[in-house]
Fold this sequence. Notes:
Chain A is 38% helix and 24% strand. Chain A has 227 residues and is α+β, with helices and mostly antiparallel strands. In chain A, β1 and β2 form a beta hairpin. Chain B has 191 residues and is mostly helical. Helix content of chain B is 69%, strand content 0%. The chains are: A alpha+beta (227), B mainly alpha (191). At the A-B interface, α1, α3, α4, α5 and β5 of A face α2, α3, α4, α6 and α7 of B.
Amino acid sequence: MTPDSRELIDRLASEYALGTLRGPARRRFERWRASTPFVDERCRFWEERLMHLAKDLKPVQPPAHVWPAIQRRLNLANRQTGLRRVRSFALAASVLLIIGAAALLYWRSPPAIRATAVATIVAKTGEHLWDLQVLGNVDRLVVRAANLPARPAGSDYELWALPAGAAPVSLGVLPAAGASSRTLTVMQKQALARSTQVAVSIEPLGGSPTGQPTGAVLYVAPLRTPS
Amino acid sequence: MNPTPESAIEFDRQLEGLLNRCAAADSQALQRLYGLVSPILFAAITRILRRRALAEEALQDVFISIWEQAGQFTAARGRPMAWMMSIARYRAIDLLRRERLAPTLVAQPEEYRMIDADPDSEGSSAAWLPSAEAMKRCFALLSEQQAHCLELAYCNGSSHEDIARLTGSPLGTVKSWIRRALQSLRQCLES
């Protein structure tokens, strides 16, 4: 990298962090950031330094209904209610568990956690990349990485549901190796229910900063009902 | 009020700990994080978007991104507040573009009156601000016009064109002020 190109990157990073880099140039720069560690490093430098400009910003308490809305979108309210119930009835549950232990001996087939939709993401070369399983009855998405292509430094692969007639909905960053299991939000479940395909895009480390794909869409795979 | 270095470090550690717990799907950590940083993020978003309903939607999006991306945050790559503030500002800028909002450059007082600033909220201690001394010294080198342009761009989400209209200055002049301001900051911060 020449000193000139370093200076250009630094200038663009400062305008990106300031917010004056707009439109297609901003999208292009985000893709560049996703694939180039030096660009990402300069963006972080400016993001941290320019925060000083917010020094006179007076905190504003968000309206009370915003947090419950976040809880609903992330399906956290049910989880917390569940936790409270578990704590409240812990003693009773313990007793019941002891009494019920004998009955469990006769329990032959607990409800199966089953995949309600699956997808296999393959490269154009036929290389097997990821397997996805949507466990609809427990609201989880399981992803197993197989043979991954070399990932550009400072970037992540992000998975998207493609609901019919609506914008893509992020299903999170894909694991670089091994398997991951995550809880699906209500929005993600609804999007998956209306999707016949999923897609993978390349994004800045940690995933798209905008909530929509910002990098190139590399793979699209059909979402099918398991046989 | 400027934070002491100790309070800033302590605040960063607290945020890092909460982000780590969010990465482990601890929803109570997200609630605590929301209590700590939502007032300042909401202030930043509201100032850019100027519409209450849109700002609330953006704040929801921001905390969903924080929850989903918490595992990707590493303290070695920067301060947690800068990371969250960037998510918030970029989301607001993105919504601003998508909603094709008229670039209103004068605050809409009736909108602001609907949201009460809370001086006692936890985010008001300014511990989230970057180290003050170096920044103060470098920002003090900027001309009044340069500093004003940077503030309009950063805090209001104003484009070059918006700033030219607001200040009554030619577009080329505004671009030049901003370019030179950033250049001056770069030289000062790296010296």
